[in-house]
Specification:
By secondary structure, this protein is an all-beta fold. The chain has 2 helices and 26 strands. It has a single domain, classed as TolB, C-terminal domain (Neuraminidase, 6 Propeller).
Amino acid sequence: MRILLRSALAAALLAGACTDAPDSRVPTAPRLDRDGGRAGADAGTANNVGPSPLLAPIPVGVELVASGLASPIQLVQPDKVTTRFVVDQIGLVRMIAEDGTLLAEPFLDVRSRLTPLNPASDERGLLGLAFHPEFRKNGRVFVFYTAPPRVAGYNNTITIAEYRADVSAGSNANKIMTDEVPRVIPGSERIVLQVDHPQANHNGGTVAFGPDGYLYVSIGDGGGRDDDNPLGHVADWFADNAGGNGQDITQNLLGNILRIDVDGGTPYAIPPDNPFVAGPGLDEIWAYGFRNPYRFAFDSKHGGALLVGDAGQELWEEVSVAVRGGNFGWNVKEGTHCFDAEAPTVVPATCPTVDPTTGEPLRNPVIEFANSKNPLGGDLGLTVVGGVFYHGEELRALRGRYVFGSAATQGGGSGRLFVSEPRGSGLWSMAELLVDGTSRLGHVVKGFGEDARGNVYVTGSVVFGPTGTTGKVWRLTRPR
């Protein structure tokens, strides 16, 4: 079922269509099918079985890489490019040169295109950045931002846009790596996809190219609480919880991971092996049942498994291995636990384990922990922040493991860093990463990144909101 574009938007998209295609299509990555993914893609349907085992802390060091940002939420480094790019939520993409200098001139500035942000705390803004696999040849860059609303009463418009950078200067493509870093060409924006978003929160925010060459996009359930807000939250198959978008795959694109082909159509094409091309859902949907999948990342070294950090409602935070056509439970479940929208702090003893409209099991996450509001205690964090796999050389104890975090603890205390080792089935164990074995970062954790050498970066700021100049980027190193 093909989602319909508004006529005015369609005209704009056609007018700005891009005709360049990559030189070659990357073959479809193995183990990304319905039952694929790296070991731990748990299709188990047992309820109320978490949380993950918590192991002893592991010491790490942190090296300050950049400071003076407002709200850095992501670091991205394109293939064979030594410049590192930092997404600042306020609407800027900043560049860190090979020598570590944070360049004053931004790579991209979309501040004028954003819906106004709340400086105290906001989940909107410029939220994601992805470089085309052939960026050094075609200069194509994709971003995720929240524009002003198109629908009366709605809060914002989730926008996936393409820009072009000038990579033609000189005959040596390595100029991209040195002092002649390209900037985005003014006026080159092409709108790829827009989704009307009813509330200010749960926007999702990641865009990334998979090993198969397609663009993946995470979009939250529309916001509000419990996925049952009367505005913009539709009815679904589970009558006990009145709503919503997470379990619906027919009426909108909210609460999903999308997968589109930005090389094959105008404004995009649908990959022919997307799970709902032949029904019953919308063609763009690749996986569903998410609340706020703010950050996801592919494991670049082990078959391309897709790890999605999904923020919880009241009690549980989760990370899932997303698979083609998979249903990840929200709002029937919160993590591995059953969920009742009328009493969200009380875990029901039972709930459905299968989506009757598709036959899909409600898949458990691979990582689950109690958040700060959970009466179980522990205060591991207010919300999960999805991370990346560590493939660097410096921290051998972390190699091949998934590094992630929680934004902050109760009362605005320091965010926390964690690591988890994949296992064959069930919940993965997790351990806290302590700076020099004794302390935490002292900032709100907002995102992660990976460079070409497999090093992992953490981004954060002193304040929750997109304001000020306390934003920093650190690289994980050996402890002192």
